[in-house]
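Ticket #144: bound-state structure for heme C.
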Amino acid sequence: MQRGRAIVLVAVLAFSFVSIPGDPAQAQRPGAQASKSKSERDRASVWMREKLAASQKILEGLTKGDFALIEKQAVGMQNVSYMEGWFRAEVPGYKAQLHAFDYANDGIIQSARYKNLDGVTLAYTQLTISCVQCHKIVRDKASG
Ligand code: HEC
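RESOLUTION: The complex was predicted; output attached.
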C-alpha cells in the first residue's frame, strides 16, 4: 500500500511538472526561458495588447487627421527599455526589430508634432513591419 501511494505521488508530481497550471503553452515552447516567471509573461502580454490597441488608435487618428490622438498613442508605446530585458531578448534579430520599432515610433511622434500626415503614414507602415517581423522571429524560434 505504501509503495502504491508513492507511485501515485510520483505520477502526480511528474504530471504537475510537465503541465504548468494555467500556462500549457510554456511547456510546449523550447524557446521559452523558464527563468522568467508567469507573472512577468502576463505583464508582457497585457502590455502587448495595449500596444495593439494603441497602434489601432493611431490608424484611427491617421484616417481622421487627429494628430493629438496619434501623438498620445505613440508616446504611450515608448517603453522600449522594458522590452530590452524581455525573455526573448537573446533571440537573433530581436534587438534589430526592437530598434526598428523604436525608430518608427519616434518617427510617428515627430511627424505628428509637425502635423505631417504623410510622414506619420510612412512611420506607421514601418512600425507595422517591425511588429510583424519581430513576431515572426519569436514564432520561428519557438517552433524550432
Ligand atoms: C521587438 C519585438 C516585438 C515587437 C516590435 C512587437 N512585439 Fe508584440 N510580442 C513580442 C513578444 C516576444 C511577444 C510574446 C510572444 C510569446 O508569448 O511567446 C509578443 C506578443 C504580442 C501579442 C500577444 C499578447 C498576448 O495576448 O499574449 C500581441 C497582440 C502583440 N504582441 C502585438 C504587437 C503589436 C501590435 C506590435 C507593434 C505595434 C508589437 N506587438 C510589436 C515581441 C514584439
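RESOLUTION NOTES: The pocket of heme C is lined by residues 45, 48-49, 51-52, 55, 83, 88, 94, 97-98, 101, 127, 130-131, 134-135, 138, 142 (CB under 6 Å).
TICKET STATUS: resolved
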